[in-house]
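Note to self: user wants both folds in one dump. Writing first protein now.
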Amino acid sequence: MQYSVEVRKTKNKGNGVFALKNFKKGETIEICPVLTLNTKERKRCECTLLAFYMYPWRSTRSGAVVLGYGSIYNHSYEPNADWYPKTATENMTFKAIKPIKKGSEISVNYNGEPDDLTPIDWFEVEK
């Protein structure tokens, strides 16, 4: 199997996901299975390291841990990818929203919309 992405250490953000090939705008980067969490399970996870890796799922009270590299993509206010939850199939699709060159870090906006500039209040955003 040939992979299109890999995890590498970044200078200031810990791990990150990097392109092993060029991606065109609109191209699927990865389809990841998810572990869904009900409200009670999400609340328990918020007291653990998983709090920094969960995505909202169906509502902001429930959640999902995205497998594959899904929970490792770093945040950017100028992302080159976006995430699309597929609740019927319980997976998360990551797609390029602009061309991504081989070797580049792939980033998403944690706010859920690529152009949402709302401050992230649970960690320091690197410029």
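First done. Writing the second protein, which came from a different request thread.
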Amino acid sequence: MKVIFLDFDGVINPITFHNSANGFSKAACANVQSILTKDPNVRIVISSAWRRNGLESCRKTLKDNGIDSTKAIAVTDGDGGWDPDNRGEQIQRWLDAHKSVKQYVVLDDFPIPKFADNTVKVNSYVGLTQKDAEIACRILCK
């Protein structure tokens, strides 16, 4: 299995969109969807603080923004709180529990040092770009 660990704020919901009537970035969401379209075996695990709303709520948010929500299979745990500094540990626990994952990429606007080789650090003011999506695809195809 191939997995995208997806953060929402800063990745598909850039800072410039926060609290606006525009919702999430159409371009950033389309770029996530392009990864899913290129490889139908890719699944999404929500690593964002939005996961505290539950998987179904996250799926609805993805669907409402043009991302295939059926690809979202899980959320990482909340152990260690919602702080992005704990994401590396939360992702590692998820990977440890799911040995079938062969390739993965972390899409986040915060650096995740533990997964530096598998992280696409997104500019939080812009969101996921086409170039970021291409890098993510290369990581998933290692």
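Dump finished. Worth passing along: The longest helix spans residues 26-38.
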